[in-house]
Design a protein that fits this description.
Elements lengths: L6 E8 L3 E2 L5 E2 L2 E8 L9 E5 L8 H4 L16 E5 L14 E2 L4 E2 L9 H15 L4 E7 L1 H12 L4 E7 L7 H15 L13 H15 L2 H7 L18 H14 L4 H12 L10 H5 L5 E7 L7 H10 L4 E5 L7 H4 L1 H12 L4
Parallel strand pairs: 5-6, 5-9, 9-10, 10-11, 11-12
Antiparallel strand pairs: 1-4, 2-3, 4-6, 7-8
Helix pairs in contact: 2-3, 4-5, 4-8, 5-7
GO cellular component, one term: cytoplasm
Protein name: Homoserine O-acetyltransferase
Subcellular location: Cytoplasm
Amino acid sequence: MEQTLQVDQLIYQHSQPITLESGVVLPSFHLQYTTYGKLNENKDNVVWVFHALTASSEAADWWPGLVGEGKIFDPENHFIICVNMPGSHYGSTCPLDTNPDKGEPYYHDFPLFTLRDMVQTYQELRAHLGIDKIWLGIGGSMGGMQLLEWAIMEPERFENIIPIGTNAKHSPWGIALNASQRMAIESDCSWKTKSHEAGHNGMKVARSIALLSYRDYTAYNKTQQGFSPDTIDKNVDEQIYRAETYQRYQGEKLARRFNAFSYYALSRSMDSHDVGRNRGSVEQALSLVQAKTLIIGIFTDILFPPDEQLFLAKHIRDAEVHIINSMYGHDGFLLEFEAIDKLITRFLTPKF
């Protein structure tokens, strides 16, 4: 009989106060998380996956090439956990939750969760689950930022870490891109209203801006040439380029599943990323990592260029680094399953 692998979607309710880096004290918080497989008797089969900006805790959905039955992270062998980051739209504490001080949703008043604050909440969940050691932590982009923070905050916690397409401190370039996206949301005339739909159209534009940093010139040239099929036979003034329809489609697609308050808040969280804050320097902070480390970058990534991964490898003791080829730019961390799988397999294979 075929075995059905265990998948659980759960909510962790933390009823004690938590103090954020900003000094704001929240009376409680909650985290939505998904687990695949079972924790073994020795509790040494934990794979903690960290998701990126607008993803959810359902890692097998957005990373199907790496997480799932028969994949390198297989629920048959591993206890895989992915937590929806605070501020996100998918079940954890977020701007649409009720502000206990006002009895209405936080909306614009949602406090800043730095990456370090996020890790603080994960530490509480880890303790609640009775997990002492995490065999492997992995995450790309903003997920990699969270992973690095945790590996520095608690160096003894991880046996192996694999940050992909990420950095030690968010760059002025990345912050400028995020600021431009927030400006797009702010320009939406509905943004100042207290409504779940506020800033919705502005977020569509923000997503369009973001996409330009997720891919690059070559990728658009290969995939978005010419006109939208339904306008090819129209007059020249009625034709619409595929590149334009693609941008509009991606904005609409996000708007169907996300809200502008979470998008705005998470972009600010990403901007706060700096492992060197109050630790002397970025270099000193990275030197604290004890886990065996594989760093993966992408040659065509213009948002987190390879120099940032090479910097990580230089300052994390004995780190291994590989830069892969991909036509997909930053999005390669979500799409280049075969190349990433091979690197992870080699990294985890015992060397005699």
